[in-house]
Design goal:
InterPro entries: Glutathione-S-Trfase_C-like, Glutathione-S-Trfase_C_sf, Glutathione_S-Trfase, Glutathione_S-Trfase_N, GST_C, Thioredoxin-like_sf. About 55% of the residues lie in helices and about 10% in strands. It is α+β, with helices and mostly antiparallel strands. It folds into 2 domains: about 120 residues, Glutaredoxin, CATH 3.40.30; about 100 residues, Glutathione S-transferase Yfyf (Class Pi), Chain A, domain 2. The radius of gyration is 18 Å and the shape is globular. The relative contact order is 0.14.
Length: about 250
């Protein structure tokens, strides 16, 4: 279960939700959304490097042992970042049209993020960060896929100010944190100028700025947790068994 608790936006206990997570992109998107809608929340840090996501109490909230998890005021858990975004958008009537073609435009880009953009870019992050030498096929494959995804997003954003059209939506909220890694993944951000323009516009939003500032604190805690974690826990976090090779 959570190793630490940090207050988020102000609010009374009766209307405050709790977000369980760390500094991963799927958690960042929920922090941005909470700031955008002004929903009072508190943040509880899950120590993934100590395998807190695998204990029985956490698995009772999310059987898939992943963050984020949002706890509603009555303790009801919602897991999967796409489901959390939909709940918050519908509950607050924000960043998601109520009906019609505009709604489905948002939903299709949201589903693309959770089904394709996140999983494929996450695999590239894994192989870039953790894979031992000699994994050239996997690294090359996922880098090509990442370029394809970024090029597709860039083409869309060259034609539209936001992913689903004229208006900012949960599709943009969901996708923004996954575009943080372009240079780290061995790709050139200059190849995607429309993504850069879109990112600049979104990062200038006050809610995004507040969320990013809070994420900086979360990242510091993540680094401290990583430093005191065991080698076995780090390997499991990276998806390796204890007898498998990993990048030194």
């Amino acid at each position: 279960m959570p190793a630490s608790s940090t207050p988020g936006a102000p609010g009374g206990p009766s209307d405050r939700v709790t977000l369980l997570g760390m500094s991963s992109p799927n958690v960042v998107k929920i922090l941005i959304m909470l700031e955008e809608i002004g929903r009072p929340y508190r943040f509880e840090h899950v120590d993934l490097f100590a395998e807190g996501q695998f204990d029985d109490a956490f698995r009772a909230l999310n059987p898939n042992s992943k963050v984020p998890v949002l706890l509603l005021e009555d303790g009801t858990p919602i897991f999967e970042s796409g489901a959390i975004l939909l709940y918050l958008a519908e509950r607050h009537g924000a960043l998601l049209p109520a009906s019609g073609a505009e709604r489905y435009a948002v939903l299709q880009w949201l589903v693309l993020q959770v089904s394709t953009v996140g999983p494929l870019l996450g695999q590239l992050n894994h192989f870039t960060t953790y894979a031992p030498e000699g994994q050239d096929y996997a690294l090359g494959r996922y880098r090509r896929e990442a370029h394809r995804i970024y090029a597709m997003l860039d083409e869309r954003l060259a034609a539209s100010p936001h992913l689903a059209g004229a208006d900012y939506s949960i599709a943009d909220v969901a996708t923004l944190p996954w575009t943080d890694y372009i240079a780290r993944q061995g790709l050139d951000p200059a190849d995607y100028p429309a993504i850069a323009r879109w990112r600049d516009a979104l990062e200038a939003r006050p809610a995004v700025s507040r969320a990013r500032a809070f994420v900086s604190d979360i990242q510091a805690t993540d680094r401290a947790m990583f430093k005191r974690s065991s080698e076995a826990a780090r390997r499991r976090f990276a998806g390796f068994g204890t007898d498998e090779p990993a990048k030194a």
